[in-house]
Amino acid sequence: MKLHTVRTHRSDEHLPREEELAWKVAQVAADPVAVESEVAEMIVNRVIDNASVAVASLSRGPVVAARGQAQSRPQADARPGRAGSAVFGVEGVHDPEWAAWANGVAVRELDYHDTFLAAEYSHPGDNIPPILAVAQHTGADGAALVRGIATGYEIQMDLVRAISLHKHKIDHVAHLGPSAAAGIGTLLGLAPETIYQAIGQALHTTTATRQSRKGQISTWKAHAPAFAGKMAVEAIDRAMRGQTSPAPIWEGEDGVIAWLLDGPDGRYEVPLPEWGEPKRAILDSYTKEHSAEYQAQAWIDLARRLGLEHPELRNPDAVRQVVLHTSHHTHYVIGSGSGDPQKYDPTASRETLDHSIPYIFTVALQDGAWDHVGSYAPERAGRPDTVALWHKVTTAEDAEWTRRYHSEDPAEKAFGGRVEIELADGSRIVEEIAVADAHPLGARPFARADYVKKFRTLATGVLADAEIERFLGLAERLPELTAAEVARLNVVASGLPTPPEGLF
């Protein structure tokens, strides 16, 4: 890996195109370096993981609505090389940008797929829907799809390692637009010039504020990354037609760094693979065993264990207070440090509750389990004993856990913390957890069998048994799939809700 210094340049400074970050990213995307077998295997895992959570969300409102929008755009002139794309849950082929949109919402709706956290936050699996949609539309085979996905993960995660967006209240999908465009560029074998223009357009159209993840969180939370993927598809199309983009998009005097991020004095060191260096970033990401914000994963595991070992903790009358000592991010984004009263509101939306660590810790403690539906049900959130205990749970930033959160050492990087529970009788229970059980360094690291189990579990009752086996049979052979098989890398369900009417 090579570090590239990125900063704002005045208009009267000479910044050669070769020194722009967008050009350097385009060079990485254009590099035909082979995908290592270990990386290809993990890509298979994440394709299965994405399908798992998409299937589980097929009947949820945002997914039904997005699917309806895609279904109103059937591929009218399907032909070789422009065959249209599949939409999760239904038959037929659709315009690729709308398939990317619908599938992106389905993948993101339950907050249940992979994550990578560094200077910024990310769900790099969000790259898969737009890259897959374009692969199906253009008749790409499995090997090309794997190459594209490897690039998408690499670019998003490299940007996430170096450039903080949330510090300036910019939503994290601003790193996803460029990465998805780069991944599609790799998939199609496009020239660096074309990829460069698409990256600039994708970034320019996908910067938005973090209000989508603040206060009463709305259904847009699931749509935001899908929008970034859709914009990446459209940016590639425009760039292929010879259209250009604002430049230099990051470094310009009126560019992203100058006005949205750290300003004219901002400086970043962005790591990117050198020419011929394999793209291995996906191996540093991690998936979720539980349907909740990633920083909640370890806390769910600890709470489940504490509830089983100390059942008295489930009774709010027995507990005086619970303090979760944790990282800056956990405290201020999903903890009491956010100042959001909605995080303690039993009538709050599911999107809000899955960003409330006081709620999540309480329910996991009382139930000894976590369910992607039942744990968020209104009747579960409103249970009087839960509300009473929930309001006794607060968070506090701990400098050491913040340091470990930002550590570059994989063996030290942590997303948990220390819980201190004071009981009504004056006794105390203190426990800590660094990473989730499913983390690569956790008690039960996720492996292929776990991804397959997750898919089977979430698909049961939604898909026919034969459809479950058909999809898994394709997904596990992903690198060897023909173009015709990639076109069938989808699932079809029956009895799905009818999409609501809109403009289209």
Automatic annotation (TrEMBL):
Gene3D superfamilies: 2-methylcitrate dehydratase PrpD. Residues 290-471 form the MmgE/PrpD C-terminal domain. Residues 19-265 form the MmgE/PrpD N-terminal domain. It catalyses: (2S,3S)-2-methylcitrate = 2-methyl-cis-aconitate + H2O. It holds the Pfam family MmgE_PrpD_N. The keyword Lyase applies. Its EC number is 4.2.1.79. GO terms for molecular function: 2-methylcitrate dehydratase activity. The keyword Lyase applies. Keywords: Lyase. It comes from the Bacteria. InterPro entries: MmgE/PrpD_sf, MmgE/PrpD_sf_1, MmgE/PrpD_sf_2, MmgE_PrpD, MmgE_PrpD_C, MmgE_PrpD_N. Monomer. Belongs to the PrpD family. This is 2-methylcitrate dehydratase.
